[in-house]
Design goal:
This protein is mainly α. Helix content is 82%, strand content 0%.
């Protein structure tokens, strides 16, 4: 594993995830744009922080096993 994930790359993954989820919600339900903007913010924040923390925890755990 290369090393810790930067917050910038995690945010990029979060934006991609939030866009895909909001498009899916827009197509599959009758959510308004106001609801989608709130959902976008929630998806972005939770996915970005969760992905960043979990990836870095796994990278730390993996690097300790290689010593």
């Amino acid at each position: 594993m290369k090393g810790p994930l930067s917050l910038r790359r995690a945010a990029l993954a979060g934006v991609i995830y939030a866009v895909v989820m909001c498009i899916w919600r827009y197509v599959s339900s009758d959510d308004t744009l106001d609801e989608l903007s709130v959902k976008f913010a929630v998806y972005f924040v939770f996915f970005t922080t969760g992905f960043w923390i979990l990836y870095n925890l796994f990278a730390t755990w993996k690097s300790r096993g290689e010593d």
